[in-house]
Amino acid sequence: xxxxxxxxxxxxxxxxxxxxSDLRALLTLSYLGLLVLLALLAPWIAPYSPTAQDFTAIxxxxxxxxxxxxxDIGRDILSRLxxxxxxxxxxxLLAVSIATAxxxxxxxxxxxxxxxxxxxxxxxxxxxxxxPGIVLAIGVTGALGIGLTNGMIAVGIVFSxxxxxxARAQTLVVKNELYxxxxxCFGASTWRLLRRHILPNAVQPLIVQITLLLAAALLAxxxxxxxxxxxxxxxxxxxxxxxxxxxxxDIAPAQMYAPxxxxxxxxxxxxxxxxxxxxxxxxxxxxx
Amino acid sequence: MNVAxxxxxSARNLEVHFPLRGGETVKxxxxxxxxxxxxxxxxxxxxxGSGKSTLGRALVGMLKPTRGxxxxxxAAPPRRRGGGQGRARRDRQIIFQDxxxxxxxxxxxxxxxxxxxxxxxxxxxxxxxxxVAMMERVGLEPGFADxxxxxxxxxxxARVNIARALxxxxxxxxxxxxxxxxxVSIQADMLNLLADLQNDMGLTYVFITHxxxxxxxxxxxxxxxxxxxxxxxxxxxxxSWAPRHPYTEALLSAEPEPYPAAMRSQSRIIxxxxxxxPVSPPSGCRFRTRCRFAKDICATERPPLRELSPGHLTACxxxxxxxxxxxxxxxxxxxxxxx
Amino acid sequence: MKIxxxxxxxxxxxxxxxxxxxxxxxxxxxxxxxxxxxxxxxLAGEEPTQERIDEIRVQYGFDRPFLVQYGAxxxxxxxxxxxxxxxxxxxxxxxxxxxxxxxxxxVIYALLLSIAIxxxxxxxxxxxxxxxxxxFVSALSSVGIxxxxxxxxxxxxxxxxxxWNWFPATGAGSLMDDPRDAIWRATLPALALAGAGIAxxxxxxxxxxxxxxxxxxxxxxxxxxxxxSAILWKHGLKNIGVTLLTVTGxxxxxxxxxxxxVEAIFAIPGMxxxxxxxxxxxxxxxxxxxxLSMVIVVVLTxxxxxxxxxxxxxxxxxx
Lengths: 288, 339, 319
What we know:
The structure holds three protein chains of three kinds.
Chain A: H1 14-21, H2 23-45, H3 77-113, H4 115-129, H5 133-144, H6 148-175, H7 178-185, H8 190-227, H9 238-247, H10 257-286
Chain B: E1 9-19, E2 25-36, E3 41-45, H1 52-59, E4 67-72, H2 85-91, E5 92-95, H3 109-119, H4 124-137, H5 154-166, E6 172-176, H6 184-201, E7 205-209, H7 212-218, E8 221-226, E9 229-235, H8 236-241, H9 246-253, H10 296-300, E10 306-309, E11 312-314, H11 330-336
Parallel strand pairs in B: 3-7, 3-8, 5-6, 6-7
Antiparallel strand pairs in B: 1-2, 1-4, 8-9, 9-11, 10-11
Helix pairs in contact in B: 3-4, 3-5, 4-5
Chain C: H1 2-33, H2 39-44, H3 50-60, H4 66-78, H5 92-127, H6 132-146, H7 149-163, H8 179-213, H9 216-223, H10 228-239, H11 241-266, H12 271-280, H13 284-312, H14 314-317
């Protein structure tokens, strides 16, 4: 460890350094940023309305007027793709927010308090982890009614054990650190210990996991919409477009590629971003 | 010792036992009496496993004693919340051995240093101002405030820890091996700093270490701790020159003297065996398994701490008779010893 | 003494599973009760009369407190009675018994494929860490995990079934009557599922092996002159046993979830089609039955894996 009393302050924030050095991070963030932009500006950017039907041009391959072709009732695929983005992004964010909002505090408490709260929370977490994800989501939509929000709430609940387990593991490590003891000695309340000492130091793996869960949530939404349990037609969704493509699979197989690629590419971007984040956040800790 | 005012801290029969799986207990602190008057430095020396760190933590209230009493300024610590418990907490502080782990890696130096006062209810501005002042006082340049712990050297971090604890102006400051992790060259600086601060601020220290050279430098009183109990307590100088317990003698002899062997005042006493487990200490005198003077009675009867000369106590059956030699420094001493 | 400890570990695991199953049944039962509005009204269907509603209320016991209802339901379930479908009035247990095998076949098939292909890929990537092969396998893994299984299924059907006619596009065979036919029909679905499975297995195996092969211990062996292949077989592979177990559990869980949708592509009469139809039609008993049976399968599988853990790796069992 060096004495750095004369080091000039860093001129650029760490994030810029990171993006400059990690191509993968740069690419994925750019792609995701672009996607968010498209989602927000969809009505103004998309060349056609997603519901505009044109029976003179059904199942057309890509050409000048329709860059990605048209579907079985003449709707422009590119426009539907763009308009499908907001639903997918919203769904992923919703599910992961719920998973984190439920899982992280539970894990934190379980790790910090130990003894019986830990055991009870542990059992509940184990139980939830035994439900194959989609199955519970489908079950919940069966009860609450079909719709994207209900389905993603269920997915969020199903994901929450993952966040809980991670939060708990991190809390266990951090709570034994000397600075937590020191703060306690100064008279810090439990709340202050959690908020200022434990949480900030436990949070990094959670951030990585959030990006990975975003990918999983996206796939879950696509699955639900494909089954007709998620986004309801005529609202466009990538999963719904795949469902339609399935119906016409034998006469127009090309229909399935655009939405499938959109789903895969976005999930890939989330996953890759997560990996880059993991590398970015870790060396900072290793700096000790 | 000044008997007119109550001691800053006094312990009677203090025990701290930790339960283990399987019913046994680790008797880290097993019956300790101590009393520290205001403005003094009380040194506690022992090997690892002696229980000194546990004792230190119990003295500041981090650990609850399993038995015995603790009094601060003559009164028991307040029990209920709000009954002055916060103030009482802050009056007793401890500085840990590892200066790096004691600081939150995600907080700047200034944030860490001002945290105690913020917890105490001061506004951020006041807390930060005092923290900065204290950091200067301990010898840190002003530029450190916005740095993070990993950017500082060990010595600098140690100073921050000291400053941080002192912002609370505690009545009692326990220093748990705080110079052990530092380079020898810095150790002297740190000890001098602590002595200066004590003079200026009228602090009371309990100084825990395994290094007798360090503790005799700075302490008024020294207690030698072995396996959870004090085996000798006395004025620092007297204890180093004329120890009255075989263990103390062995510790003293382990201190390196910077002279060629022929000129050293005494030969090194090597203790046989290792420190026994605090789960089941030896019967009678705990030190007997490694003591070269051990007799039968040492196994059957536990020697109490008894006063041999004013303020100097020792726990040994044969304290009066044993030919123990203490620390005599320098070539003159060697000549005196007739080598 | 060792055997005694191992038995204790096993019993401990089984004991831990108990509360989990109970909680799970509670959740499954509670599913029906999160329905907005009065369940009796919902069940009564279109334009219900008050009599019909009251009738249903008594018939299903909605007038009794929650825990009593739960108890009654649980008691019947333990006896194998999961009530009847609201649509077809068939017994739920019968439906499950008919459909589960059609689900399990592709899942287990896919699991085997994942291990059979994923493990060699992972080993190859780990032993040539940093090479183009390694990068290729990593890229393939990333794609495999990001690709929706049902999309992969659609692509496979389009090419292998519709275009080239190597496999049938739909349907499941009966394992009892004609195993070869059943397995042949299950191949495309299994491949669709295995995409993600292979990716996950390859990634985990590679990662675990790289760590082991780079460890101090192995470096010492190499310095002693042990050949690379000897190191790989004797030490490297022995230690990934735990990893393999973990990843098997994870992949199995995921496959059970993914198969629900893949079944829709291949028109397989399995748990997936059962629950989707039931969800759309609010056929609660079927929904509950499917969820419950899947949960039990998952819990039992995890239990077996945990027990195997405890037996393979003595360190793991000392929580």
